Amino acid sequence: LDKIICVRFTEERTIDCTSPELKDDCILVAPNAKTYRDPAKYKCRREPMPQNNWNTLARNSTTRLSCPIGCEPDADLSVLVKTPRNNRLCQKYYTYGKYRDVKEKEWYLWLTEPCRANITTWCRFRDIPLAQAKTKTAWRQENRVQKGLRFEDTQPVRIAVEVQ
Q: 3 φ, ψ to 5°?
């Protein structure tokens, strides 16, 4: 690959599910959003918990709480971070996670019992233009030319680098 994609992570999204006044609900916190996100417009919903043989932690959970997070429609999500981090009842993909509702063009963060935590992610935008990057072959060629070697002596190896 001769090109890299620069990706920026700029807008943090958290669903706060641990504040005492939120008995069985979560609220959206979007401190760095370019456009203000009114938490009242991003209501969580109860929905059936998908049951899978591999998910033994959520086997007794019949519903999950899913919360829209208001990323731009063309955005992707980065990693998920839970707080408190030492909460062993919350296991990524088992008792909390993310999914995209294609029909609504909206990302959701979800959690199910026994997990009770705040979940944070970042909206990821791919709007920075592609940049030309040197391949490992080009670096080797440049290095060998400096040492007086011929380009034909190099082994073609290409690497891709993602800059964040």
A: -125, 155
